[in-house]
């Protein structure tokens, strides 16, 4: 297949996964404006960070008055799953030039990883990475355009609708597959409890990081125990 | 990370733990957003967000659909605050 065809296949494969990105982008744009960011700042966030969950965490902490250090480390923690994506995909990209690797790592987001990881495993053509570029570029276009639409709509949506409730709902939606796994459910409960109980007591609004660490430590202990019992 | 990291640096154990990152981080956003009000107080009585979140969670578990989860949560929230 030609480079363009592989690129096109990436676009087609990722398209169904773009449906949930639309409300997510809208919510981000609307909330950012609501909190008091300028349209340019809001757009720049989407262009630079290009990561939905972490951008909404940023808004949440910023509106709660957290310090820059806490916000930056929380955003980093939310995005740390991309370390995993990078590590998994890297074996397929080892022959590429550094510039290409950097471009691809910018586009390596959840949805693009989900579809291209399968493709990269099954195909051995030297241009197979165009699939990832196609998927990533599609996500990029959808994310930027829905952010922009949210910015425009932001002023028109009444506060009474309580759209900020869409934030926990969005994150809840991202966990739907984890509710079926025992260890994940325990991790979810531990992290949620630590964050809620520590919300007013953990200094510097660092409750996201503290709760996440508590959750990860729980996961480590439980997975180790499970292995021993096998 | 693709550019900087060699595959060998990530063993299976680290991969396994990293796969729990969403389950460990997202609840830290979800729970306070539901249970703690604008004034920073714990709120459990007369809090429509709790029921709406439970409905969304059940719909999410059944449907496995991101859209259905968000939509059912928001509509039940609006139903609870505007109609009930």
Compact overview of the structure:
The complex is a heterodimer of chains A (230) and B (84). With 230 residues, chain A is an all-alpha fold.
Description:
- The complex is a heterodimer of chains A (230) and B (84).
- Chain A is mainly alpha-helical.
- Chain A has helices spanning 3-14, 21-35, 39-48, 52-63, 68-78, 81-90, 98-107, 110-122, 130-154, 166-174, 182-198, 207-229.
- In chain A, helix 1 (3-14) crosses helix 9 (130-154), helix 2 (21-35) packs parallel to helix 4 and helix 7 (98-107) packs across helix 9 (130-154).
- Chain B has a domain at 47-84.
- In chain B, 67% of the residues lie in helices and 0% in strands.
- The termini of chain B are far apart.
- The model of chain B has no long low-confidence stretch (mean pLDDT 86).
- At the A-B interface, helix 4, helix 6, helix 7, helix 10 and helix 11 of A face helix 1, helix 2, helix 3 and helix 4 of B.
């Amino acid at each position: 297949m030609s480079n363009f065809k592989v690129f096109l296949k990436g676009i087609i494969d990722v398209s169904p996964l773009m449906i949930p990105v639309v409300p997510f982008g809208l919510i981000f744009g609307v909330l950012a404006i609501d909190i008091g960011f300028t349209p340019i700042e809001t757009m720049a966030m989407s262009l630079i960070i290009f990561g939905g969950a972490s951008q909404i965490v940023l808004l949440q902490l910023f509106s709660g008055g957290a310090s820059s250090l806490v916000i930056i480390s929380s955003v980093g923690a939310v995005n740390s799953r991309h370390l995993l994506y990078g590590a998994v995909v890297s074996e397929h990209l080892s022959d590429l030039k550094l510039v290409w690797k950097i471009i691809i790592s910018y586009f390596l987001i959840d949805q693009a990883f989900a579809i291209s990881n399968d493709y990269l495993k099954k195909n051995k053509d030297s241009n197979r990475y165009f699939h990832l570029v196609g998927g990533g570029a599609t996500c990029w276009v959808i994310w930027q355009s829905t952010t922009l639409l949210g910015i425009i709509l932001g002023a028109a949506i009444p506060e009474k609708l309580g759209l900020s409730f869409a934030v926990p709902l969005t994150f809840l939606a991202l966990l739907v597959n984890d509710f079926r796994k025992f260890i994940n459910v325990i991790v979810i409960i531990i992290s949620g409890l630590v964050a809620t109980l520590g919300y007013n007591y953990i200094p510097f609004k660092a409750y996201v990081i503290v709760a996440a660490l508590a959750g990860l430590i729980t996961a480590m202990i439980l997975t180790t125990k499970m292995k021993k019992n096998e | 990370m693709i550019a900087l990291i060699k595959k060998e640096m990530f063993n299976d154990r680290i991969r396994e733990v990293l796969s729990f990152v969403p389950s460990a981080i997202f609840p830290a956003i979800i729970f306070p957003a539901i249970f703690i009000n604008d004034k920073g107080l714990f709120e459990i009585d007369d809090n429509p967000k709790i029921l709406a979140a439970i409905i969304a969670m059940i719909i999410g578990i059944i449907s496995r659909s991101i859209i259905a989860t968000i939509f059912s949560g928001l509509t039940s929230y609006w139903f609870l605050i505007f109609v009930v």
